[in-house]
Structure formats: C-alpha cells, structure tokens
Amino acid sequence: MADTDFLRVRRLRKEYPGTTAAAVADIDLGVGEGELLALLGPSGCGKTTTLRMIAGLIAPTSGTIEVGGRDVTRVPVHKRGMGMVFQSFALFPHLDVSANVAFGLEMRGVKAAERRARITAVLERVELGHLADRRVGQLSGGQQQRVALARALVVDPTLLLLDEPLSALDAQLRQSLRVQIREIQQASGTTSVFVTHDQDEALSMADRVAVMNNGVVAQVGTPTEIYERPSSVFVATFIGRANLFEARPAGAGVVEVAGLGRLAVAGSAASGGAVTAMIRPQSIVLRPVDDVEADAPSTPTRPVFEGVVRSTSYTGDQIAYRVDVAGTTLDVETTATLGRILAQGDRVRVSWSSDDLRLLGE
Amino acid sequence: MTADSTTLALPAAARRRRRLSGAWWLILPGLVILAFSYFAPMLWVVRMAFNRFIGGGGIEMTVSVDSFSEIFTDPYYLRVAGTTLALGCWVSVLTVVVAYPLALFLARTTSKYKGLLTMFAIAPMLVSSVARTYGWMVVLGNQGLINTVLGGLGLTDAPVQLSNNFLGVVIALVQIFLPYAVLAMSSGFGRLDADLELAAASLGAGRITRFLRITLPLTLPGVLTATLLVFVLTISAYVTPRLIGGGRVFVLAAEIYDQATNQLNWPLAAALSVVLIVIFGTAISLYQVLQKRVEKRMSGL
Asked: What is the pTM of this model?
C-alpha cells in the first residue's frame, strides 16, 4: 500500500454475530488513482463483504477506509459519493432508462438542463442513447448491465464499485462487456474495485488483482505477477492450472523431488521441511522421442525427462495432454498449431526452463 | 409440401381442442356450484328488489321502483349508506396504515423466526370475529378496561365514549381486519429487491427519499389490494357494527338484515342489497383501473 493510493483500506475486519471466523480478517488494500483492482476469490472468501464495507452498505467491525485522504469509515452510504453496480443490476423497475440514470443526479440537486446533457452523454458512452425512453424490463441483460454502469458513472463517483457485474450474463456477452467496461473505466479514469470469482475476468480487466481466501488477502499483484509468480499453493491452483510437486530443499535454488531427482528452481526455498514446487502446463515443452530437437541433453537449467502420453484432449486452439513421467502425471498444454497431435501411448520427452519451476509458500 | 403441412397441422389442432375441453371439465364443478349458490340467488335478489311491499309481510309480484325511490328519498337510508361508506374508507385507510410497517418488516426480515412472526401476525384470524368483537366490548365499554384504568388513575372524570359509537366500531374493525391487510400486502411485497434500496442509497438517497422514491412506489400494488380487501370486508361487516355500535351506528348490512327478518320487507332488503353490490362494483372497478396503471409502471414494461 503506497502513500499515494487513492483508496486505502487499513486492517479492515468484519465479524458477523453468531459466527466464529471473521468474514473479513484485518485486510489491507490500496488502489491508486484511476486504477482498477479486482478482488478475486471463491465464494465466501469475503470479497463481496469487503466491497460492501467500502461502499458503506455494511459497517465494519474494525479498521478504516480512506478515499482521497479522507476517512469515510463512519460516513453513511448516501454521503460517500461512490457509484455501485450490483450483480442483480438493481435497476429501478418503475422508472425508464433515463430516469434510472437521472436518479443520482437528482439526489445531488443537478439542474434539469445539465442533467439532460449528462444523461445523454453517458448513455452515448455506453451505446444506449437510442433506448433512453425504454422501460428497464424491456432491455436485454447486457443492456441492463450497461444502464447500471451508466447510472453509477453519471454522478462522477469518487470510486466505482462493481459487484460481480457480469456473472448474471451469458458467456459470450461477458466477453464483449469485459472489454467495454474496461474501456469505459479507463476513459473516465475512475478508480475502481471489481469483485469477481472468475479468474479470466480478473486477469483480463484489472490493473492489479487481490486474491482473497478465507477473509484474508492471499496475494496482491499485477495479473502477470499473480499468474507467473503465485505466492502460495492456493493462488497457484485458484488461478489457472498448475503442476505441483512435493519437494525437499537441497541447497540454494535446488530441490529434491521424488522420481525426478534434484531440480533447479526459481524463488527462495524456506529452510527445513517439505516445500511445494509449481510449474504451469504451458511452460512444459513436449516433443515426440523421434523428434530431432528432443535429443538436446538434460542440463540443470533445462531438465529433460522421458514419459508416455496418458490422454489427449483437443479443444481447437489448445491441446491438453496428461503425461506420465517417472511416477507422476503432468498436465501439459500446447498450442494446436505446433507440430502433430500426439496420441495416447506415444513416447515423449518433456522439458522446461528452471525459471518456470517455482517454489511456493503455504 | 402441402401434404406435409396438413398432416402436421391436424394433430396440433386436435391437441389444442382436447386441452380446451379438458380445462372446461375441470372448471365445471366450480361453475355448477356458483350457478346454484351465487348466480341464481343473485338474480332472485335483483328480481325481488323490483317487487312491491304491501305491509305485514305481503309482497306483490310486479315491476316497480318503489323500494329504490324510498332508499333515495328517505334521508335515513341515505345516512345509512353514507355511514357505511365513511366506515369503509376510515377502516380501510387506518388498517393499511397500521399494517404497512408490519407487512414491510415481515417481507424484509431475514430472521430465522420469520415464519413464526408471520404466524403471530395472522394468528388473530384463528379467533372468530364475534369473539373478538366481544373482546373489544370488554376493553372499550364505559366500565371496560380502558375507562376503568383511566378513571382509576384519576385521568378522566367521566368515561371516554369508546363504544356504542362510530369510533368504537372503527377501532374494533381495524384490529379485526389487520391480519387480512398484512397478508394481502406482504404477498405483494415480494418484488421488493433489497438491492434496489441499497442502489438508491449508493446514489445519494437518504432514508426518507429511499422510502418515497423506491419502496413506496414498488409496494403500491400490495397497498391497493389490501385497501380494497379491507374496504369490501368493512362495508359488508354486520356483527361488529351491530354489537360495538350498540344500536347507534347504522350500516347497510345491518339494515338489510333488519328489513328482511324483522320488517319482512324483502323488496326493500333486496333493493338495499343491490345498492351495496353497486358500491362493491364501483370499488372493484376503481381498484382495477388504479391497479392496472400502477402495475404497468411497476412491471418495468
């Protein structure tokens, strides 16, 4: 958390009466001005509770929330000046599109003429200008989603909060709205917090991702940091797929894995007991044994192992293999354009760069 | 192509016909019961209203509007109709005002005792309204609970007149019809999504604005239904106005009973019934116009 952060959450905690574990346990978060932070985690991890505390919809048990240097922890929701997009969209069914968007402006006492101009502008921005007089029940899910976004943005909120804004929509619409929401957020420069359980959504839209689990933040970082250098087994397995090896430290930057022997790893090993090493399926190179290039010798930085293809699953652009290597089964993913498709029982050589084999924390 | 479409079209049409006739068979028992117990007596009442009363229980079978002209010229009957209408309006408005917060609470609460609380709210319906009316007589009478307490504390010199008058009837009827209003409203409050009020709050609406701009408009259909229900129940109430009114509050239902059984003036009783039915009809039509307008706004379509 940097001092320059626009939103600062300090030791924020929420306990619900009658439960033993805190829903949110003393988390710290910082979001820079204009940045989009995704709160990512499985259901029940506390991400929505965190968002609702930032919005002022839930009172925290302890901790503080600062926006633009001002402590808003005790400011009631209707005086926080934030914009929120709900999972259910929460559009007012008795009002038409422009009246829904106008609501926040009326609450701020914006004059009718300026109100009209701002509504027109924001509806243009979400490409709904032609539907201003429609009732919200006549709109499709994607259109309702954009009305909800326009309604939150039109008031120039200090913060834009999005609670699973895409999860009520079908897969194709989600894809296109991801891009659109991201573009609108960047164009308006609004500092935003986005809650999702969908790792693709988080990685593709956010400047930074905070992975949450059991009420605590497991890791915060840019999408590439989170994906390539996960700090824990939980983050490694929650984001994308991972091959995990139980290992024992064997000197600096070297671990011992049963069946595979001594392997060079990236990241520092905790001294002593068992550790976990991780490699992404895409980082493993797969060659048939008869391939000329597969003859490269095994080196500490580029170990090579022989194995047998156990199963193949072809999904168009990607091929996912499961390969038996020295008593363990590895997940390997290759792009379909590279070479021929291997079949079950084919003998192969697998190799990887020691930079891609990473040691994990807990 | 033509052959194909006919072979395809025929079974579909036949299926539709069979389904229609099936539906008719299902509603037939209900229709038969309604025909004997409702439509026929109703026609008989309307016919009776145009007969002439010739004293001592005699009825001349004819077509005359004597009974109606008696109702619309005698100030007594106009006053009875006026009292009935006034009672209907007061009781329905007051009941809805009292029941609304209760219904809203029951619709919103996430308590695990929600079922139990709802049962408490409608439990008074398990006791006959006659029994509850006697209960109110005990509470409201001049030697009743309230006046004994007030007098005993020296707060009042003479008993406060709470029974044998319009006020007493209103108090008792509001309590008796409260469960109906709560039920009618809370069933209509289902569409009130809690996120809507949170969304309004996040947009800068305070508590009162949220209620006036979001909650109230969205609960209006339930409010209208409850108002109509209580109004209709009130203007047809007989026992409570009779007992609590103590012979001083005259309403149409009681007057109809009196004319039919004591005066044996069946044509006049029938004509008064027709007047009551017209009031019902007007109230229901008004309700439907309002409800349609409100529904159209609420549905978001």
From this structure: 0.78
Q: Is the ipTM of this complex over 0.95?
A: no
The Cα–Cα gap between B139 and B123 comes to 19
CB contact under 8 A, B200 and A137: no
Cα B271 versus chain centre, distance: 21
CA-nearest of B259, B222, B214, B277 to B74 is: B259
Whether the CB of B217 is below 8 Å from some CB of chain A: the reply is: yes
User: A92 and B214: CB-CB below 8 Å?
Assistant: yes
Task: Per residue of chain B (301 residues), give pLDDT as tens.
Answer: 444 444 444 555 566 665 667 788 889 999 999 999 999 999 999 999 999 988 777 888 888 888 999 999 999 999 999 999 999 999 999 999 999 999 998 888 878 888 888 888 888 888 888 888 888 888 988 888 888 898 888 888 888 888 889 999 999 999 999 999 999 998 778 767 888 999 999 999 999 999 999 999 888 888 999 999 999 999 999 989 998 888 888 999 999 999 999 888 999 999 999 999 999 999 999 999 998 888 777 655 4
- Reference B240, options B84, B15, B36; nearest CA is B84
Residue B103 burial class via C-beta count within 10 angstroms: exposed 0-12, middle 13-18, buried 19 and up: buried
CB-CB under 8 Å, B213 with A90: no
Token readout for B75 is 């100030």
CA B10 to the chain's CA centroid = 48
Look up residue A102 and give its amino acid: A
Q: Are B202 and A92 an interchain contact pair (Cβ–Cβ within 8 Å)?
A: no
**End-to-end CA gap in chain B:** 40
CA distance B229 to chain A (A): 24
d(CA A47, CA A153): 22
Q: What is the CA radius of gyration of chain B?
A: 26
Tell me which amino acid residue B24 is: W
- Computed over its alpha carbons, how large is the radius of gyration of chain A? 25
Which one of B202, B213, B300 has the shortest CB-CB distance to A93?
A: B300
State the Cα–Cα distance between residues A135 and B300, nearest whole angstrom.
5
